[in-house]
Amino acid sequence: MRADLSVRIGRLTLSNPVLTASGCFGYGLEAAAAFDVSRLGAIVLKTLTAKPRHGNPPPRIAETPAGMLNAIGLENPGIEAFLTEILPKSRKLGAPLVASVAGKDLADYAALTGALQVPGISAIELNLSCPNLNAGGIDFGGDPAFVREATRRCRKASPRRDLWVKLTPHVADIRVTARAAWEAGAAAVTIANTYVGMSIDWKRGVPRTGHGTGGLSGPAIRPLTLALVAKLAPECPIPIVASGGICSAEDAMEYACAGASAFQVGTASFRDPTACLGILESLPGCLKQAGLARWRDGIGRLKRPTRAKETL
Ligand SMILES: Cc1cc2nc3c(=O)[nH]c(=O)nc-3n(C[C@H](O)[C@H](O)[C@H](O)COP(=O)(O)O)c2cc1C
């Protein structure tokens, strides 16, 4: 029997829970040469800003134990070039597209969201959590009042397309910012963006990224983000989309246990551009090992030790 991998995220029913993480798959066009990307549950596109951005000075990437630091700084062609030059091509890929936006203030977020009310865009992820900007990014996303207001304004600007709110892990309690998002109308929360980290070339006495710090991603962060998902899930009324160090179907199953409805593959795609496909093909075997016929039956199966109730 074929495993049923379908999952509902707000108004969208995805054929499977395997999504790409923003910034790790471009606009889907390069990977399409490597595999049939229409098999993905959805492609989450590189974050867009109102104006084109060149990003941060190099080096923008540094390898770390079990992970990487990136300080790209939201390099992107800007919303106009995306709509006219890129979207017509990405639309032909056949997978649902989730656009990602980062504004410089509340009005900018709403304007970007409004501009994306176009055929071919299935949902919009609000990137309230980029660690590589001098202003905005995680400074915005750590403030529940900003999360609430940004979500509320974008909700108004997006009557027919769901909002997914991507949160920063740099908060005392992820439940507070997530609550701000769902109370303001988010259809899902993406947990989480990268963690601020640093690596130093001690011989020269300089940071290994041009920006000074970078966002830590990859397997190194998986236990941290997994704990955030497990903490949030029991009281979160909207689906959680996990993002943090997922490299295998087994990793994805852990996140499902913790309460994630779908998941995004980020850093793993840099090592192997077909990583998503490998994970998708291995999921049915994992479901079988767990005695499950459907992906959605595996969501939130975590048995919580009674003593851990306070911390999880
Ligand atoms: C090189 C690189 C660029 C990224 N760019 C973005 C971005 O533009 N927007 C965004 O929301 N997240 C961005 N991220 C964060 C990823 O989407 C993802 O949330 C994070 O890397 C954790 O997942 P992972 O450990 O699977 O990579 C970027 C990550 C990397 C490594």
Provide structural commentary.
With 312 residues, the chain is an alpha/beta fold. Helix content is 29%, strand content 19%. The protein has helices spanning 79-90, 106-115, 138-141, 144-157, 174-183, 222-232, 249-258, 268-271, 275-289; strands spanning 7-9, 12-14, 18-20, 43-44, 61-64, 67-70, 97-101, 121-127, 162-167, 188-191, 195-197, 200-201, 206-207, 214-217, 240-243, 262-265. It has an 8-stranded parallel beta sheet with strand order 3-16-15-10-9-8-7-4. Strands 5-6-14-11 form a 4-stranded antiparallel beta sheet, with no helix packed on it. Helix 2 packs parallel to helix 4 (144-157), helix 4 runs parallel beside helix 5 (174-183) and helix 7 packs across helix 9. The two termini are 35 Å apart. The relative contact order is 0.17. Residues 21-24, 46-47, 70, 72, 74, 100, 127, 166, 193-194, 217-218, 221, 243-246, 265-268 line the site of flavin mononucleotide (FMN).
Fill in the keyword field for this structure.
312 residues, alpha/beta, TIM Barrel, 8-stranded parallel beta sheet, 4-stranded antiparallel beta sheet, 9 helices, 29% helix, binds flavin mononucleotide
Secondary-structure blueprint of this entry?
Layout: E1 7-9, E2 12-14, E3 18-20, E4 43-44, E5 61-64, E6 67-70, H1 79-90, E7 97-101, H2 106-115, E8 121-127, H3 138-141, H4 144-157, E9 162-167, H5 174-183, E10 188-191, E11 195-197, E12 200-201, E13 206-207, E14 214-217, H6 222-232, E15 240-243, H7 249-258, E16 262-265, H8 268-271, H9 275-289
Parallel strand pairs: 3-16, 4-7, 7-8, 8-9, 9-10, 10-15, 15-16
Antiparallel strand pairs: 1-2, 5-6, 6-14, 11-14, 12-13
The structure holds flavin mononucleotide.
